[in-house]
Amino acid sequence: MTSDSSETGKTLFKDLNLDQRLLDAITDIGFEHCTPIQAETLPFTLVCQDLIGQAQTGTGKTAAFLITAIQSLLETPIPEKDRFASEPRVLALAPTRELAMQIAKDAEQLCGYTGHNVVTVVGGMNYDKQRDQLQNEIVDILVATPGRLIDFLGSQDVFLDQLDILILDEADRMLDMGFIPDVKRIIRKCTPKEDRQTLLFSATFNQDVLNLASMWTRNAEFVEIEPEQKTAERVEQTVYLVGEDEKLPVLVNYLKRPDVEKAIVFANRRDQCRDLDEDLRNQGVKVALMSGEIAQNKRLKTLDQFKKGSIQVLVATDVAGRGIHVNGVTHVFNYNLPENAEDYVHRIGRTGRAGKTGVSVSFASEDDAFSLPAIETYISQKLKTTVPDEELMAPMSNAPITRKRGGRRPQGSRGQGGRSQGGRPQRQRRN
């Protein structure tokens, strides 16, 4: 969650007529003033207006939709005798496990004094435990990724026809990752849009996303928070013009600089990330890999080590990188320039957060320099390009790993877990 209390003249949370229990949790977290996305959206969402919001990661949109949901739950309590397990009142859909886990963590903090139950269902974690929670607990807020939620809908372990609020976060990423057919199936199981509040957030809006937003919302208010020059003003951006074989030594030598406290290195493909992880480890760097092929429990442990400083560098794919929400990242490295200019913005948005400055270093070789003009056009600025100095070009301590390229490595299959055959009697929507 992100909020900014560094400036006066901003909307104060205490002026929004929030329930005192929710306000106490907001105060405990350290929030006082709303961020722009919160100030623009909450006046609409707190009066049950559907909303379509355009905002980048790190703007405070998560707190905006969670505060809306929790305030609604507090204003419209339902006696426990009228509630059933497996029937959430709020559903937040996110494209990645990491983002869903972060949303759930933020929700639990904001529910610190309200007693509401937050349940998370995501792939890569214990299926039976998640099913038991759905079957046996009164669920107020359900945070889910599409694939795992489809599993539980199919086995009738969760029902969405009593839903009051539907939240769709990072809709553009769900579209990019091919989740929209699953999301459509999920929404068909939800309360009709006339009887629910729908909040949809996306970093970008192409025509496909706009069409989906129109389909799923009703008389929605559109709020757009433009990123500062599409990239953070607090991030110093440099592009090094290098040969492909010069990237690794320049990266290794740069990581030795004392100002590089926490760094994320992005590459375009999983195999490149695997190789980079091995190469940096071979050079004595405290590094860990973040990609979709890493088990979820290991990724969570890695993130915790990164936050605590026992790991200096994360090597990440774009999808995994979107789930990294860690303050204090001093440097972001683009080992390859991304093919999609929007991904450049998301990558460097991992640094320069919470009022701090950050550094973005990109490597452009003849293999990927063609992406540079599109990135500069997208962010509306010319990036500083230079060649590495002698210090950065110095030989590495250890000889680089020599690899023989063969066929593709086998990919792991998605675990299915058990399924229950249970269900519930047909119920009518609450009036």
Q: What are the defining features of this structure?
A:
15 helices, alpha/beta, elongated, Rossmann fold, single chain, 14 strands, seven-stranded parallel beta sheet, 431 residues, 2 domains
Task: Walk me through the structure.
- Its main location: cytoplasm.
- Keywords: ATP-binding, Cytoplasm, Helicase, Hydrolase, Nucleotide-binding, RNA-binding.
- Residues 42-223 form the Helicase ATP-binding domain.
- This protein has helices at 20-29, 36-45, 61-75, 97-110, 127-136, 146-154, 171-176, 180-188, 207-216, 247-255, 270-282, 296-308, 318-321, 341-348, 372-379, and strands spanning 51-54, 90-93, 118-121, 141-144, 165-168, 197-202, 221-224, 235-241, 263-266, 287-290, 313-316, 331-334, 358-364, 384-386.
- Residues 4-9 and 406-422 have low confidence and may be disordered.
- The strands form two sheets. Strands 3-4-2-5-6-1-7 form a seven-stranded parallel β-sheet, with helices on both faces. The protein has a seven-stranded parallel β-sheet with strand order 10-11-9-12-13-8-14, sandwiched between helices.
- It is elongated and about 70 Å long.
- By secondary structure, it is α/β, with parallel strands linked by helices.
- It has two domains: 13-226, P-loop containing nucleotide triphosphate hydrolases (Rossmann fold, 3-Layer(aba) Sandwich); 229-386, P-loop containing nucleotide triphosphate hydrolases (Rossmann fold), CATH 3.40.50.
A few lines on this structure:
By secondary structure, the chain is of the alpha/beta class. It is about 35% helix and about 15% strand.
